[in-house]
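Exercise 7.
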Amino acid sequence: MKIIGLISTFFFVSYLYIFSPKIDVVKVSGDKILVNNKTYFIKGICYHPVPKGSTKRSFNSLNQDLVLMKEAGVNTIRLYEPIDDIEVLNKIQANGMRVIISFGYNQNGLYDIKSGTFINYIKKYKFHKAILLWELGNEYNYHPEWFENDIQNWYDALSYATDLIHKVDKNHPVSTAHGDLPNKQALSSNPNLDIWGLNVYRWDKPQSIFEQWKNLSTKPIYLSETGADSYMKISKSGFKQGENQKAQATANAKIIDAVFNYSNMVSGLFIFSFTDGLWKAGNPDLQDVGGWAPNSSGVPYDGAPNEEFWGIVDIDRNKKQTFDIIKEKYNSFNPSNKNIGND
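Solution. The predicted structure, written as tokens, is:
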């Protein structure tokens, strides 16, 4: 009977090992992201799908969007708010993509940092295979007014939240999306961050930030936002005023090439953004000109970002010129076969 019991136990344990879902382990090693001990290079897109006529995010077009993203070679989606819908995460995973989930500081108690409820989300979804890493805040260094005019209050909250995540989730790194290059205050206040996301708008030459970063830190980085819009406020650099998809495509091509050429110094990028956002600058039923973002004079090629023209597809999912540029570059790039470090 003991032999039969041992055999039964052996087969039961073997069954659990073979058929139970294995947890993906994401970590940083040196200046790289590793997923299950294999280097992971982000070829990403920022995604906040707000339908025409609305000001709130909706995933009603998710199936169509994922088809387009997959065609474009996207492997990672960056979200500005948590997705509390396992079916959405399942669809993203089923299409071979991962997500970066970003938590805001104050979202009226809905999975935000201020209330501490963000940790409930992490506990709920930390085993999902779609998750790449957790991201805290987006360009908050530009907004000390949100933190009693003392940005140290944000850095303290960021550090505390990072430590809390590390206690409950050992399998995913923690990041923040910082506006351009962090200063010594930001870095010294947050030595516990695993990786830094940098929102970089330096015309069509983001590579200037890579050497600067290496002089500050040995932590890995990714570009959490970069790219260009498809509207020229003025005629400049050979591009005519008005809607100008060629200007956007040209800039994004140069930006992507720069990141890929320095893939030994950066872990990837997120092009901003997947679809135009008609909710940003006026009537959400119409595509308005305007909606200027702060600290954004580095946006090619007019130094004036038109917030409703950032998509690589328009609001009806028609592909812009930049879509094919991204598709060609994302699908053909393999960092292991690249001669890196050249302009």
